[in-house]
Structure formats: C-alpha cells, structure tokens
Amino acid sequence: MPLHIDAVEEVIRDVIGPAADGVDRSGGFPQAGVEALGRAGLLGLLSAKQVGGQGEELRAAAEVVERLAGACGSTAMVTLMHYAAVPAIEALGARDLRESIARGQHLTTLAFSEAGSRSHFWAPMSTATRVADGVRLDARKSWVTSAANAHSYVWSSRPLEADGPMTLWSVPTSVTGLARRGEFDGLGLRGNGSIPVDAVGVVVPEAAMLGEDGKGLELAMTLVLPTFLVLSAAASVGIMDAATVEAAHHLRTARYEHLDRSLAEGTVARLDFARMKLATDREHALLSDTLSALESQRADAMLRVLESKASAAEAAIAVTDLGMKVCGGAAFRKELGMERRFHDARAARVMAPTTDALLDFVGRSLLGLPLVDEAVP
Predict the structure, then answer these.
(1) Which of 150, 232, 142, 151 has its CA nearest to residue 189?
(2) Among candidates 78, 80, 54, which has minimal Cα distance to 65?
(3) Which residue among 177, 195, 212 closes a domain?
(4) Pair (235, 171) in one structural domain
(5) Distance CA 64, CA 58 (A)
C-alpha cells in the first residue's frame, strides 16, 4: 500500500475519526486533525521533494481527500482547499513558503469567492493599487475556508495595472488590515471554518504577486481549478462510499424483531442499497478516468475534469438521500453517521464553480465555445 495511504489511515484512526462527530456537533475547526496531517507529511504531499515535500501527484491527493471525506467531511474540505492552493505556490511562490508547506507547518487556502461576483470567480471585484510601500489590496471575500486558521491565502484581485481579468497573490493571514467576520454555522461541513474575510488597506510587497499581472485567470484555470475540481469529486466520492458502507452495516445488523430477520432481507431496502452502490461505483470510475486522462494528457482531460465535480456532487446528494431512506428512522439519529454525510454531501452543489456553472462549462467545451465570456458581475 502506498505510504500516503498508510499515513492518512493512521491519522484517521487515531485523530480524525474519533473527533468527527464532535467537530460536526460543535462546528469547531478540526485543528488537531490538521496538525496530525502536517506531522504525517500529508500537508506537504504535493510539495516538491526539492523543498522537503512528498513530490506526489494529483492522484495521491485524491486518494487522501477521498479517505478523509469518508471520515470527516470538514477535515477533507480544509485539506482539499490547501491542496488546491499549493500548485500555484509551488509554481510561483517564494521558496521559504514552499519549504514551510512541505514541512507540514503551514496551512494555506484559496480566497477567490467574493461578495458581488456570485460564483463568477474569474471576475473579481477586489482591487489592487500601487502605494509607496507596496501594493494595497481591498476586498470583500464572501467565503474563505480555514479563514481564521490558515497561515496564508492564495488571493485573487483585479489586475494591478495590466489588462486581463485578474491577478493572483500570496497573502499572509497575519498582515494588518484583514478582518474575519463571524463563525461558520451552516448546513454541512460544519467544521471547515468558512467565513467572510474583508481586506481594508492590506499592503503586501509586489513580490507577493503569483505570476504575471493580469494572468491570474490563466493560472487559476491551469494550476488551481483542475486540482480543486478533481479533489471536490474525490470528496463527494468519499462521502458516498462511507454512506454506502454505513447503510450496508445497518441493513445487516438491524432487525425486524417481529419477523426475526435482518433489514437486508427486505426487497425494497436491497434495491435502494444497490442503487447507492451503483452510483458510488460509477463516480469512482469517472474519477479514476479523469485522473488517467490528466496523467496521459489525453485530449479530453479538461472535459473530464469539468464533468467530475458536477457528476459526483449530484450523485452524492442522491446516494445520501437514498441512505437516509434505507436506514429509516435510525438515519435521523446522530450516532449512525448518515445524517452528517447527508448534510455534508450538499455543499458541493453550491460551491463555486457550482454544478450549474460546470454544466455550462461542459456544454461550452463540447460546442467549441470559450469556457468563460468576458464576465460582468
């Protein structure tokens, strides 16, 4: 078994799994789990070996996120957003930042979603302005995962001076002028720490720019978006897999007392369980094919990437809905775990790019149209 699989399963067994229900009940950030992932080398999974990381590819990250999501959706989302930000930093960030991530001592995340732009991440409202001591960033970021717990953000803004839709920055969370508002109290993924972040007069050095001014959309589409979409699909698959395993256990062990037989002997329950398993296996297959397409640079690789999150997000909703039906009244009790996965599965549908936005991307790709128009929020 690959070392990263052994490592994540050990961390899940010892730290993340036992804490998952408490994280969901309290909405608290899974700090102990994140620190354990760092110690196990898993926060540095995608970091190059030259800076002390594991040097693994996207498939390994997908395997880690899938397993995390089966145990704790919130921890999976925190890790997913960290992994989505790392490729931009690996390609364009400062070496000391890369080394800190590789050592597992630095948690990063994306700060793309903004008030006013809706799910159009490619059309930021935030601004970058040259000032005497660097570049001033002003923004109203609507949702930033791990906002109060990450050490840095991969941040989007309008260009500083160049033409183009956006520019990317690496912004330390310790910088003066950042304000985080409230606590996350949502339907699912309750411990992922997503809250609004405002930037008022935040000043960073121009060297904090990732890549060229105005080229942020190209960088986001090549370095960030494929990782985010594939890992989002992996998280949905992990939730589906866990729901299916939980449903199977319940059907085998719960009994019709007056008939002295297990629920598994009921035809309707078996049919719904079979539908759960078929949908889960289909999404496993699409995710695996997507990764193979990326690894072999197949012509349809980007199409598969776009399809993966849209398909898995909707399938996870359907599978967890069936799981609630299959497990009946027991599914509504916290101790079974189905209710938590039912809630967690619903986040992917509305997480930008939303399912509807991705379906539009897929249609555009198939019809030979540009993925995004020159968008006006």
Answers:
(1) 232
(2) 80
(3) 212
(4) no
(5) 10
116 with 39, same domain: the answer is no
Choose the final residue of a domain: 50, 76, 107: 107
> Residue 246 to residues 30, 112, 177, 322: CA-CA distances in angstroms?
23, 35, 46, 12
Q: Which residue has the tokens 């037989």?
A: 261
Residues 227 and 327 in one domain: yes
Residue in the block written with tokens 């609004």: 196
Distances (CA, A) of 75 to 20, 147, 152, 257: 8, 14, 18, 38
Q: Is residue 351 part of a domain?
A: yes
- 186 and 222 fall within a common domain: no
Q: What's the token pair of residue 127?
A: 């601004």
Per-residue pLDDT of the chain (377 residues; tens, 9 = 90+): 788 999 999 999 999 999 999 999 999 999 999 999 999 999 999 999 999 999 999 999 999 999 999 999 999 999 999 999 999 999 999 999 999 999 999 999 999 998 776 667 778 899 999 999 999 999 999 999 999 999 999 999 999 999 999 999 999 999 999 999 888 888 899 999 999 999 999 999 999 999 999 999 999 999 999 999 999 999 999 999 999 999 999 999 987 766 677 888 888 999 999 999 999 999 999 999 999 999 999 999 999 999 999 999 999 999 999 999 999 989 998 888 999 999 999 999 988 889 999 999 999 999 999 887 654 43
Q: Cα angle vertex 65, ends 113, 3, to 5°?
A: 140
Give the global pTM.
0.95
Whole-angstrom distance, CA of residue 127 vs CA of residue 283:
39
Closest CA to 15 of 45, 41, 40, 43: 40
Find, among 57, 156, 45, the residue nearest to 107 by Cα.
45
Provide the domain limits for residue 78. 3-107
Q: Are residues 167 and 44 in the same domain?
A: no
